[in-house]
Specification:
By secondary structure, the protein is of the alpha+beta class. The chain has helices at residues 2-31, 81-94, 119-123, 138-141, 148-155, 172-186, 190-202, 251-262, 269-273, 339-352, and strands at 42-48, 51-58, 60-62, 67-68, 75-76, 208-209, 223-226, 229-232, 247-249, 294-298, 301-310, 313-320, 325-331. It has a single domain, classed as Beta-lactamase. Strands 2-1-13-12-11-10 form a six-stranded antiparallel sheet, sandwiched between helices. The longest helix has 30 residues, at 2-31. InterPro entries: AmpC-like, Beta-lactam-related, Beta-lactam/transpept-like.
Length: 357
Amino acid sequence: MQKLILFFTAILLINCSYAQTLEDKADSLILSEFKEANGPGGVFMIARKGQPIYKKAFGMANLELEVKMTPDNVFQIGSMTKQFTAIAVLMLEEQGKLTVNDPISKYIPDYPNGANITIHQLLNHTSGIKDFTKMKALGDIAQKEMTPKQMVDFFKNEPVDFIPGEKFEYNNSGYVVLGYLIELVSGQSYEDFIVKNIFEKLGMSHSYYATDRKIIKNRAYGYHKKSFGYVNKTVINFSVPFSSGSLMSTLDDMLKWQNALNRNQLLGSKETQKAFIKYQLNNGQEVEYGYGWHLKNMEGTATREHGGSVFGFKSMGVYIPNKDIYVLGFSNCDCNSPTQLVRDLAKLTVKLDKPTK
């Protein structure tokens, strides 16, 4: 009995030492970048086996009201929205309402060259269609309320960048088309589909389709940094980034999302895994992108990654499947990118990770 007590005491001490070391090193990493206690800040979380082992906030959520950041603040997550759009498409496929090999002309008959562009190519950025964020005319619509059809019409007649399947090129337009397809196939608005089939189902009660008008508890406000100081973020109508970048969430809700994917709460395992395959181009070359995630590696260990950038906000998430480690960072100033920090925190966590048997 005494040996058992000594054994579990030793394990407890090891775990406490691990947690303290991780906290100290993580704090040091983050504070090397997020240095201003009274400037815009960020929130960071490290989770292991589905549970947070580090979660902290830095800086201010609102400069004018001098409100400090908390780990519960709600952030715009930018292109991390693409994960939700991709899984929504796979949910519709599992329901038999579409297949990823369908040409988009099946749903949008007048889309130029739509018979040769598949849903699959929209999902993994190999469609060749013009990215609307690179169009000079974007400023003309940035603050207008656009329907999904109007957004698709905005870029669909632009010259293509390459033949479908010829190369990988990150593309926001493809994910706007996917959002429109979700609406056409499901009979619901994109917002309603995501809220009812994902947020509500998973208990993600602090996740939203972005809005500047609705009162959102614990909202973090977005900022830009100029030579003379900080200014409020540029206003954009969220109907423009739409299904490519218009969702909001929190650290805890995003952990619910990651855990749900791991536990196949939204899709069967076979369908879920389609999001995490490195597909090939026409010439057989492998693409390091699945459906909604970059598929990379960190010092030989496979990772699933994605960041986001929208006026006033930046986000980044890294998941390490073979360790079940999830690292997430949000910033409320587009002057502070959490991308490299999150990767460094992931490396640190793996290095320190000594799971008990």
